[in-house]
Amino acid sequence: QVQLVESGGGLVHPGGSLRLSCVVSGFTFSDYDANWYRQAAGKERELIADIPSDLSVINYVDSVKGRFTISRDNAKNTMYLQMNSLKPEDTAMYYCNAWRFGSGRVFDYWGLGTQVTVSS
Q1: Are 107 and 100 in contact, with CB atoms under 8 Å apart?
Q2: Beta strand segments in 17-91, E
Q3: pLDDT score at 91
Q4: Is there a contact between 118 and 88 (Cβ–Cβ < 8 Å)?
Q5: Cα(9)–Cα(90) distance, rounded to whole angstroms?
Q6: How far apart are CA 15 and CA 20, in angstroms?
Q7: How many beta carbons lie within 10 A of that of residue 3, not counting itself?
């Protein structure tokens, strides 16, 4: 059974840090691209960071560049998102995602999300 379970969210003051984790199971994580999305209230879900299965190019949306770092540990079936210098506009539900294309189809798995609230 495929599972992605996020943890590490919470309430933090502006300028603070959080580290999100996403433990996956039920599939071969190393074959998948690992992605972090977020969705703020009233807004669409957006891709904020991705790290491919081959670790070739890591991408970030401009709004988090220099503050967030995505990483993965395939041996632990876990992806991470280190978030520093948090701002109120980073408040959102954060979702991990694992994605690959193979055998003529897309494999696209999601966690249930973890809430991050940045407020003084």
Answers
A1: yes
A2: 18-25, 33-39, 46-51, 59-60, 68-73, 78-83
A3: 98
A4: yes
A5: 12
A6: 16
A7: 13
Quote the distance between the C-alpha of residue 38 and its chain's center: 8
Q: Is the pLDDT at 34 greater than 90, yes or no?
A: yes
CB 94 within 8 Å of CB 68: no
Q: In this structure, which amino acid lies at residue 72?
A: R
DSSP category for residue 115: E
Q: Give the pLDDT confidence of 67-98 residue by residue, as tens digits.
A: 999 999 999 999 999 999 999 999 999 999 99
Render the burial of 37-71: b for 16+ CB within 10 Å, e for the rest.
Answer: bbeeeeeeeeebbbbbbeeeeeebeeebeeebbbe
Structure tokens of 61? 């949306």
Q: Is the dihedral of CA 66, 67, 72, 73 positive or negative?
A: positive
Strands 114-118 vs 10-12: parallel, antiparallel or unpaired: parallel
- Can you read off the two tokens belonging to residue 55? 């670790």
